[in-house]
Design brief:
By secondary structure, the protein is an alpha/beta fold. About 45% of the residues lie in helices and about 15% in strands. Helix 12 packs across helix 21. It comes from Streptosporangium fragile.
Length: about 450
Amino acid sequence: MGAVRHITSSPSRRDVLRGGALALAAMAGASVSGCASGADDGAAAGGPVTIELWHGQTDVGREAIERLVADFERAHPDIKIDTGGGVLADAMLQKVTAALAAGSYPDIAYIFGSDLANVARSPQVVDLTDMMSSGPTPWTDYWAPARAAVTLGDKIKAAPALLDSLAVVCNKKVFSAAGVDLPKEGWTWQEFTETAKRLTDKGSGTFGTGWPGTGDEDTVWRMWPLIWDLGGDVIAPGGREIGFATTGERALEVVRTLVGDASVYVDPKPGSEQMYKVFLAGRMGMVITGPWQLPDIVGAEIDYHVVPLPSFSGKPITISGPDTWTVFDNGEARVKAARTFLAWLMQPEQDVRWDVEAGSLPLSKRTQSLPAWSKQVEKTEGLSVFVKTLETARVRPNDPAYPHVSKALGEAVVAVLLGKSTPAEALSACAAKANTALRVPR
């Protein structure tokens, strides 16, 4: 979704899906066959097997994965890992689909969960069902969102790489200045909008909350918990129309209330950097975000409080946006080496290092139980709240048409944020566009 998050400052750029890349993914899946990246199968005569890893990380994430790779190579001298290729995770979809079409692709790539359904159309994506089902950490021990993000039908098409969730982070100083009590678990969306209104102070330029306003995935994925809580879904049973034709309108009413109260800062730029800057400057009371933002909040010396998302029903629900390690077939030796590396990387002893150093939540409950993670929770205010929300977190569907639904809903949210449409008008336009896309064979 770097210190902010190790990939990017927010999930928006994590999850941007471009139509051209999706079309290229379909073409790659239909036209590429056989092994392409290395005729020697990655192994010199009598030497180690070399595999190519496109990790997509920057800053602390890059340093963390490179340390882990170095430790793996010391323990597995028969396998070498080349981490020099690839691009940033935000552009990985385009890079991988182009590589598949050209017939020269990596052995492992960091693929966003919302991209996997399209990438997995390629016959070069390796089925990891046996590896994940028989690993030393039981498959059921991984958090449900992590399992769901890599499962397409009855096949496990990737390994979980990163786990997160959404909650509300509050600036205690802003609340105190406004004479408003901090929210508690079990609060409602009505209480959220009322609190945002009370925190807003035009004189000091203080906003109650913020919302990304570019229409990308950062704008959209904050809507799904509201829609799910109201009984809706992303795609209706049968797959030919959206599953939020009515619930979406009520969810958008929350956005309209914030706009009507002038209590929401609408970030006009991709990545939500401006929204977070306003919060870090002490001019925003609440921000809906994930654990990736905590290092920056701590670094800015903000006295903060974390609380689960509000609800309509009184039942907690949030969204998780897991990312994946996807394996591509460059021959038997390289596939085996890639599996060996990922099986090692996902085990609790390595996972906890990745989580602590790069900003993820534990992939499994075994990782969560390790002393190193407990220590991290003790020293990071609110981190335990994000972990607990995983118990009720859901993920977006692994459907190739999801990007079209997301784009249509993103346009609807922006129309309401900018006061150009009512929720009913915006949802009607969204349904027309998304349903047309859903009815195209896929």
